[in-house]
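User: Could you walk me through two proteins back to back? I'd like the raw sequence and the structure tokens for each, with a short line separating them so I can tell where one ends and the next begins.

Assistant: Of course. Protein one, sequence then structure:
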Amino acid sequence: MLSLIVVAMVTVAAGFVVWANDKRHQKYGVAVPAGVAASVGMLSWIIFIAAGFGYQPGLGPSMCPTRTVHGRCTARS
């Protein structure tokens, strides 16, 4: 669920940047591009999570400084 919050914050920020850079932004409110970006981002997140493309522990880069041939961490913490 934290990833959904991050997606929402990033897409709303991108919507504000789009609004600020648009020359005709007086014609519509600041919430229009931010809302559209947030809704598209969150809908995409829901689709990706439902399709199985969510966070999978162990598949990302490891923080372990030493590794074996098979990529497993040899250091114990």
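----
Protein two, same layout:
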Amino acid sequence: MTDPQPTFRSPAEQDALVAPFEIPMGHPLSCDHYTPQGDVMGRLYVLAQFELMNLAAFHRAAFETVRRQDKAIAEYAQTLKSEPTNPLFNDEDSEGWAELMESRSRTAVLEADNQNAAVAAYANELCVIGLWAHTEKYLDLVLAGFTGTAGVYRWDDFLQRFKSADVDLTSLPGFHGAAECRILNNALKHGGVVTPALAAMPTFAGQEAKQLRDIVLDPQPYLLAVHHLIGSLLETCGWKLDGGTPPRPWQTDGFGRRINASGQTVRTNLDATAGLQRPLSGREPTSDLGA
């Protein structure tokens, strides 16, 4: 079965996702707990989860600022439409000045609107980059705690080192989503276009060489994938160190989402609480409550 991949929702579909973002009291991701054994893996798990919560909170704060600015821009634009003509500009000689001032005001609105859109897109880019930095950091920390080897940063080296220690990263929940996050991270940092490797992913199929700034990025599936990959890795390594087998009674897709026997995604509390602010219609923010 082919692992489901994240897709970009249409504006109409995105507009339906308007429920408020919320993380309930207690554990930052609240559900789908992993159970790493031992102090080292258990401590890393707690740190990793709270760092993911902080990244989601940062992303939310950025979009709250975008939302407030967007409202202010809309209100100012409305005043331009409804303002009465200044009596000082009623004569023909002053008419040109009135038109010039109105034009400059509308230009200011457009520039502010464009900047706000750029900030929203930049928040999504930083979130993807931050998620991969988080993944790389914890892959190295887990490898150090599990094998005593540290200082690894190359993807192939991580795969080989864990495989040599009898841990197959490719078999863990969330692996494919995290791997796509890595490729997108590299593309964002080096050139800003859809690379051949990225175009090989269903999410970016047919978009090779396209500017990433022209694509509405969706960081939500990557957040969930990274949570599942690092959580399941810590659990696997912790139980191996403890001499046991980690409990994993459910099947998951490549992004770590639970699936039933028919391959259909099963919604969990994690899907409903670990959301990121997502731009609507290519720009405007809302909250997403699903993977």
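The first helix runs from residue 11 to 15.

Let me know if you want the two compared in more detail.
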